[in-house]
Amino acid sequence: MIMFKFQWWKAALASLPMACTAGLVQAQTFSDGHGSISQAEVRMELDGAPPGVREQMNREQMERFIGNVLTERRLEGAAKAAGAADLPQVKAGIMRATREIVARAYMEGEVVKLAASLPDLTELARERYMGNLAAHVVPEGIRVSHILFTVNDEEEAKREVVVKARAAQVLKQLREGADFTELAKEHSEDPGSKRAGGEIRDWSDKGRFVPPFEEAAYALKPGEVSDLVRTRFGYHIIKLHEKRDARQKSFEEVKAGLVSALRQEFLGNKRAEWMKQFQGDKPVELDDATLEALKKP
Question: What's the CATH code of the domain at 170?
């Protein structure tokens, strides 16, 4: 089960999820004309799917996957008949894979047990919150849109005059009631916000923008549009949507994240302690000759 499924999972991850409906009668076996497989066997094969892929599979993807499994089974049979399973490198690969799968399954089960033994970490989380309040502050911020008319500082002054005149004309249209979003889509030269009508997505914390832009933006009231603002990027027309003051987050707002971080920390320590029983009590040592011998295929 190597090449075919690997390629299929990559294709599945790139596919859009499709809705599916449950039938009244479920097929218990599947055939591609040369072989068959039971639903129970398909389910076991699907257990190896990356998280989230299995749930998003559509009918075509599932059919392709089952067909690939049947093809790989026949390929495996032909390989065994040809003696490939007896090759030293194949035996070594099977041994490594078996060791890794068995060890991982065992470790995952033990980690679940360790996680169940963890105490309630709420009060410790509260102590960490109180001990570092500054880490849980929502900074002052704004939500803004802008229309940018770029000017390269190395260009001739004549070029800047032309750009400024064009920006002034757009500002005049805004003052006369034109729609900011539409003008931004038409005139803005900021590729990051042009398609969104000039809107800079989400909140921008104070200090994000260059000083002239930020000073002008914070001087506005929600809904207001600035005059032309010159920065090293060119001329901006800024519209302020919202402004927020800095505030301290409450413990309840950050509790889940703090508790989760503490659980991972405690669990990591417990896991490291548990692993000690399988580790040696002295380092492995190699001489130069042995090292060079091992490095050769």
Answer: 3.10.50.40
As a dihedral over the C-alpha atoms of residue 174, residue 178, residue 183, residue 184, rounded to 10 degrees, the angle is 60
3-state secondary structure at position 75: helix
Q: Read out DSSP for 27-61?
A: -SEEE-SS-EEEHHHHHHHHTTSPTTHHHH--HHH
Distance CA 222, CA 240 (A): 5
268 in any annotated domain? no
DSSP letter for 225, please: B
CA 74 – CA 39 distance, rounded (Å): 18
pLDDT tens readout for residues 170-180: 999 999 999 99
pTM of the model: 0.64
d(Cα 283, Cα 285) in Å, to the nearest integer?
6
